[in-house]
Amino acid sequence: MATIQAAKRALRAQLKQRLAALSDLEKLRQSQAVTRKLLSHHRYQSAQRIAVFLSMSDEVQTGDIIRDIFHQGKLCFIPRYQPRSTHMDMVRLGSLEEINQLPVTTWNIRQPGEEDCREEALATGGLDLVLVPGLGFDKEGHRLGRGKGYYDTFLERYSRHLSEKPYTIALAYQEQICDSIPVTENDFEIDEIICAGALEMPEK
Ligand SMILES: Nc1ncnc2c1ncn2[C@@H]1O[C@H](COP(=O)(O)OP(=O)(O)OP(=O)(O)O)[C@@H](O)[C@H]1O
Ligand SMILES: [Mg+2]
User: Is residue 153 within 6 Å of ligand 1 at its C-beta?
Assistant: First the structure.
């Protein structure tokens, strides 16, 4: 267990370096390609309730995806994580314009404040699709996040409450695809990865 944690830490550091070397133009190019693929994906097109992250500077940029969610009249949920815990809820974002009014967290991500009473996806019917961020991914669907376990804990709670798993798609830069990712039994497997280039995932 300790070795897996150490291997995760080392890979996180390596991936952060690799991502820091990507130019803004390259990130924009890949983000646009990922967005195009997602918007034409049947899982996205048929989904009504979608969870999407507000991207940090080294993650696939999700602005155009969020715009499309509202444009298509789908429901948009975004993460609200609690600092100093592994707890995260997916709460409803009412409009595109609301984003700029949300407070910024210590991770420099916008999210609704604790006191801001919002519809929670788990309480009102779950999610048809969860778009997952992360630092690294492999073709088996293993994921390395930033080390807090927010998504693992959320998806585990989701399965416990609703007795099913939502469909999960990770959005990744090509540089985030690794040969293999060290995982423990707490790490959920993502169903699919969308990146700018070709990626064959084995059938599950
Ligand atoms: N299902 C779970 N229930 C409770 N705690 C969990 C669960 N899954 C993970 N954790 C906690 O989260 C910690 C970090 O997990 P991990 O190293 O997998 O983070 P991560 O998946 O890379 O991060 P994140 O999901 O926030 O991007 C674990 O050491 C564990 O304590
Ligand atoms: Mg994990």
Answer: yes
